[in-house]
Amino acid sequence: MGRILVTEEDIAGAIEELAGAITRDYLHKRLLLVGVLKGSFIFLADLMRALPMEFEVDFLAVSSYGGGTTSSGTVRILKDLDTNIQDRHVLLVEDIVDSGLTLSYLMRMLKARRPASLRLCSLLDKPASRKKEVSIDYLGFTVPSEFLVGYGLDLQEKYRGLPYIATWQG
Ligand code: IMP
Ligand code: MG
Known about the structure:
Blueprint: E1 4-6, H1 8-26, E2 31-37, H2 41-49, E3 55-63, E4 76-79, E5 89-97, H3 101-111, E6 117-125, E7 138-142, E8 148-149, E9 165-167
Parallel strand pairs: 2-3, 2-5, 5-6, 6-7
Antiparallel strand pairs: 1-9, 3-4, 8-9
Helix pairs in contact: 1-2
Magnesium ion (MG) binds next to loops.
């Protein structure tokens, strides 16, 4: 492990702020939170418990990395939504936007299903690695272009359970 970049306290503070903004925007709407598995499951679990409003939750599972530390650019849908999102207010919840390839693909795919609205909430943004433009409506932290682990982020399925986000140095 490298150094701790985002502490447990930093994460808790960001979640409070994000939950406040989301609640203001969606209070009178029927919100569907869509977690992008696997990386977002811890962030989504904490975020949803900070939301003092009604909502539903669904998941998508994608694979964009072939097990290494750089994006392959190929997005595979491993599990699609259970919910019909036509006319629904959809908020996609991600752990990190890196190259943007996964998110731009997912946003395009979901938009084609004609939701009432479609926005993106990401805990982390690594803008220096961007290959495809992605607009993040609700963002926790901007991070440098290093490989990160913890709080849902993995390296070959390890380190997801760390309560903080750290840089990886092999
Ligand atoms: P993108 O398509 O390059 O934007 O990558 C999106 C996905 O790659 C994220 O949802 C993560 O699952 C994974 N990813 C990107 N950067 C990191 C990292 O630093 N650590 C762990 N996973 C990452
Ligand atoms: Mg992910």
